[in-house]
Amino acid sequence: MEKRYFTIGMAGHIDHGKTSLTKALTNVDTDRLKEEKERQISIELGFAPLYEDDEIQISVIDVPGHERFIRQMIAGVAGIDLVVLVVAADEGVMPQTREHLEILKFLGIKNGVIAITKIDRVDEEFIELVKDDILEELTATVFEDAPFVLVDSLSKKGISEIKDLIIKSLMEQEMRDAKGAFRLPIDQVFTVKGQGTVVRGTVYEGTVEEGQTLKIMPTGLEVRARQIQVHHKQAQKAFAGQRTAINLSNVSREDLERGDVLVSSEHFIVTKTVDVAIRVVEDLEHLVKQRMPIKLHIGTAEVMGRIVFFDRNEIKEENGEILCQLRLEEEILTKRGDRFILRRPSPQETIGGGWVIDPRGNKYRFGNQTVEELEKKKVGTPKERITAALVEGKSLPIHELIKRTALDEEVLKEQLTDAEFVLFNGKEYTLQSIINSIEEDVFDRLQEFHLAYSMKTGVNKAELLHILQKRFPKSLLDFVVENGITNRIFKRKEQFVSLKSFVPHVPKSWEKRTDNLLKELKKDGLMVRYLKDYFSSAGIPDNLEFDLKRFLEDQALIVQLDEQFAYVGDVFREAVDKLRSRTGTEFEVGDAKEILGLSRKYMIPFLERLDAQGLTKRVENKRVWQ
What we know:
Helices cover 33% and strands 30% of the residues. By secondary structure, it is an alpha+beta fold.
């Protein structure tokens, strides 16, 4: 069974006991900063391992609850799979608790557990009243049917119960997509002495490996994952849903900031104009007006911009979804389906939230026609849904496409007849554009290889595809290579793949010396010197000897008898023909020596080469022609 990775968040009002509960659950104090200790509040996101076995690993984010730290709270919640809503028994649901609930709703987080903390401060009768009050406040929120546990972090009462509840809930939940392209929104950047720049975040999707080449977006800086850590332990890989710290090479601390995104693919879109579907909070204090400034929180990014409506000029209250556009002052990396929060910069308040319909928004006219177009785009055509699923998954069987597109099987099968979709292996679909992209990549790699190693037959197939396997399934890569061979773009000799047009050859600068080597070797006929002597005489350096020797043998220009001796190919073949013509179906060593006039020094390696090539077979003291 594949191991699954989850991150859960602690959310709630300031001083309701989130950090104490995290410590009671994990034995880790997430208030690390001196200022946090002094003020007894959480300023930055705190992280700790909660639980791990062979099937599941769970991490905790302690999300800051104070109004001033709302942006950190949004950044933390955006990457989690389950929320523990912390409500103090002596205070109940407070204003910031309600705001957190709105944010959770807009970010699409549905899985939750309620922890009623500080129960040691009130009597049992009061707890029942508080419990009823909390449940009433949570009606019509994402926590309406969430289970709750009474806990006291100091005495550890209820701690094992809430931990079991979290584990059970996540055991029944699907983890994030570990097969898509890697994406990690950065929420912390720092420097470690002797190591360099380190970024930290929650892996939204995909997998990252030590040594992998990545990009920082939106800047496009290329970096390498020098080292990966999960909960302060070195790891070879980090998976979707895991909190991870990655030590990056080729980049300085000053080149990065919170809100940048670490990715492994070119498919993600960088944009400043985004078509969105939003909902607003229930009790807006101020009007939301056409083109007013907004602060967008998406992933860990926080960007200023303006909101543009196409069917109204203001919102006071609205229960439904509004289709509109965000025009931003800075570029962000996003894709369809990403969730976000909108805040008013002044006076500060949460306006609403929603999801990205299209990261590549255009300028549209004001009017219902634009809203109708956005509505179509929001639903997405069947073809668009399939394409989006395959861009992300690279290759998917039909049952997975049904799940990801929510299309009826008949509609899906009808759409898959389009030439853009390619069935391979009889069971998996991919995009023609992905095939073209991989084919170009393989072509470029082979061309580069042939320029550097002109004497080699080609690249070992496993070696050729190794790097690409980080981005594409092996079955798809195998298909593309075989398809390229069929279409006469590539060719294969044994396990080596090369371009169809490529012919192995000696580099021009060594052609003359190689010709001299072969002339000398041919002149000596069957009485040759050590092969190394011929390379030295021809002035061929040691570092070229191995590749040139292999090339000459592959091209049948020489035949190596053993490590020391070799004959020119024509000389060897003439000797074989001469021996065959003067013997019957079999012969002995003495016969061969007499016919070819060779001493034992050459005779034994020569006969063993005949055996190795399958020309003869040794039977006791004789050789039998095959």
